[in-house]
């Protein structure tokens, strides 16, 4: 793949896409993603904004991505639709999922010869607009790099903001107009005072895929939203019920009515898909039509026998759900409804219905966690593995803004690594244990809790090679925040763990 010319690669991928919207229009907007194609095209939010921009009568949207792994990291991105550089557009809109993608934003701009810092750009450069899931928690570290941020649900605002940016007589006029819109943050004018997040009218739901492609992990899957938000109150989660009015349910008939007849694979997407009141009927009906179905989140207390049977019919071989905390005490602290009895029942039902294994996501490094909690996890998971083979997917805990656990310290890199090692040793030969990196979780934590200075430090880190050591040096060089970060480093050192860690 690295030896394939980028234009050839793009041609091949375009030939395999279904649903792309062919369009020429006077306002050309570049929609970029700060990760490679296969990640972007699995993002329902990215796909939704693509469709929203294409729905504008005078607008045509062109997509660009970071290079795939294995390709030169500084390869200049070009749009899939016209092979144009990002610097050829009046506006570049970027969707950012989480903190570690801020480096991707910088790389997208730098490799397109656009100065990453807003203050270094002028009228020769595109205006940079950003939005995406990161805006629900703490997008402030993005502020040095963008002209405009849309906070929260962006599908209604994105075309409006892009039109103003692309047609205003000057950058100054564009920003002055946008500053009057609710939910739009202009770092240059607003400093660090962010408005509340946007919530679209329920009539705009559900989001669904525009383009299907075999070149993603979700290969050719048609994605559709079954609900938005969540009615639960997990204390670490940005999407809890206090965000944007809780859970908004899409009626079953509306969901089924949007699914194209030729979509053999369907992904049901949302923060709490299994809480949809008709979820068992939806999965069963799709399975009986001969389709394979995947769900982005399964709560263990919702896994009734009927539900697990429907999932098996829909092609599930691994039942994936959330354990969240390593012990019952920590699950209480996280305000989880999931209990040991639900996890045991999930394991038994997965076995009864002939699935191959149970996969559980959990966080470690939680506030007040001790080795006793890890030992309880070892004992309990060992018992579960006697029912069905078990795999653990672990993410170190990072406190996020706009959650009750905001401000909780990072446990420390060495503490997280020691606990992971204790888990691995205790479960060796019985349970497959995989974890995301404690070091990068610390970087995510600093950015999740940080501000403009931490954002600028990402630029220093990227320019110094983007290694963990480069990030640590860059963060430690911020004078005003040194004591807090020092503490985290010396002690050494997401929202819904239902979803796979990045
Ligand atoms: S972790 Fe999942 S279930 Fe809990 S509030 Fe967040 S989205 Fe809802």
Number of strands: 15
How much β-strand is present in the residues? 5-15%
What does the largest sheet look like? 6 strands, mixed
List unreliable stretches of 5+ residues. Answer: 482-502
Tell me the radius of gyration.
23 Å
Number of domains: 2
CATH superfamily of the largest domain: Aldolase class I
Please give the CATH architecture of the largest domain: Alpha-Beta Barrel
Bound molecules: iron/sulfur cluster
Assign an overall shape: globular
- Widest sheet: strand ordering: 2-1-3-4-5-6
Write down the CATH class of the largest domain: Alpha Beta
Verbal overview:
The chain is α/β, with parallel strands linked by helices and 502 residues long. It folds into two domains: 6-190, Cobalamin-binding domain (Rossmann fold), CATH 3.40.50; 220-490, Aldolase class I (TIM Barrel, Alpha-Beta Barrel). The protein has 18 helices and 15 strands. A six-stranded mixed beta sheet has the order 2-1-3-4-5-6, sandwiched between helices. The chain has a four-stranded parallel beta sheet with strand order 12-13-14-15. Strand 3 (91-95), helix 4 (102-111) and strand 4 (127-131) form a beta-alpha-beta unit. It is globular and about 65 Å long. The structure holds iron/sulfur cluster (SF4). Iron/sulfur cluster is lined by residues 230, 232, 234, 237, 239-240, 271-272, 299, 495-496, 498.
């Amino acid at each position: 793949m690295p030896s394939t010319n980028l234009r050839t690669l793009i041609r091949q991928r375009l030939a395999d896409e279904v649903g792309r919207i062919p369009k020429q229009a006077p306002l050309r907007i570049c929609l970029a993603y700060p990760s490679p194609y296969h990640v972007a095209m699995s993002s329902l939010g990215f796909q939704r904004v693509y469709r929203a921009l294409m729905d504008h009568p005078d607008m045509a949207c062109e997509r660009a991505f970071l290079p795939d792994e294995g390709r030169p990291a500084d390869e200049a991105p070009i749009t899939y639709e016209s092979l144009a550089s990002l610097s050829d557009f009046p506006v570049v809109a970027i969707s950012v999922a989480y903190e570690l993608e801020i480096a991707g934003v910088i790389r997208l701009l730098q490799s397109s010869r656009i100065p990453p810092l807003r203050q270094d750009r002028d009228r020769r450069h595109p205006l940079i607009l950003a939005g995406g899931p990161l805006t629900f928690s703490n997008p402030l570290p993005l502020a040095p790099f963008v002209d405009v941020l849309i906070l929260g649900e962006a599908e209604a605002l994105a075309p409006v903001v892009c039109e103003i940016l692309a047609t205003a007589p000057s950058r100054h006029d564009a920003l002055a107009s946008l500053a009057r819109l609710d939910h739009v943050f202009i770092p240059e004018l607003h400093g660090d005072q962010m408005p509340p997040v946007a919530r679209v009218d329920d009539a705009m739901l559900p989001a669904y895929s525009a383009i299907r492609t075999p070149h993603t992990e979700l290969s050719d899957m048609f994605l559709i939203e079954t609900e938005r938000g969540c009615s639960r109150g997990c204390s670490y989660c940005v999407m809890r019920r206090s965000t944007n009015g809780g859970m908004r349910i899409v009626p079953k008939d509306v969901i089924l009515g949007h699914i194209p007849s030729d979509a053999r694979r369907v992904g049901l997407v949302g923060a709490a898909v299994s809480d949809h009141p008709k979820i068992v009927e939806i999965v069963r009906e799709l399975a009986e039509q001969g389709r394979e179905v995947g769900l982005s989140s399964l709560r263990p207390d919702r896994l009734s026998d009927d539900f697990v049977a429907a999932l098996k019919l829909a092609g599930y071989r691994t039942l994936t759900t959330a354990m969240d905390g390593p012990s019952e005490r920590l699950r209480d602290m996280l305000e989880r409804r999931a209990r040991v009895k639900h996890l045991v029942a999930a394991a038994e039902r997965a076995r009864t219905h002939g699935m191959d294994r149970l996969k559980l996501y959990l966080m470690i490094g939680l506030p007040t966690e001790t080795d006793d909690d890890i030992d309880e996890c070892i004992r309990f998971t060992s018992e579960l593995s006697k029912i069905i083979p078990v795999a653990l997917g672990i993410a170190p805990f990072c406190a996020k803004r706009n959650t009750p656990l905001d401000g909780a310290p990072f446990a420390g890199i060495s503490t997280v690594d020691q606990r992971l090692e204790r888990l691995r040793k205790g479960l060796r030969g019985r349970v497959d244990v995989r974890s995301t990196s404690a070091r990068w979780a610390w970087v995510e934590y600093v950015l999740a809790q940080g501000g403009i200075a931490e954002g600028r430090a990402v630029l220093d880190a990227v320019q110094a090679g983007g290694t963990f050591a480069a990030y640590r040096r860059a963060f430690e060089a911020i004078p005003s925040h040194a004591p807090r970060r020092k503490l985290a480093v010396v002690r050494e050192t997401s929202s819904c763990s239902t979803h796979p860690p990045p």
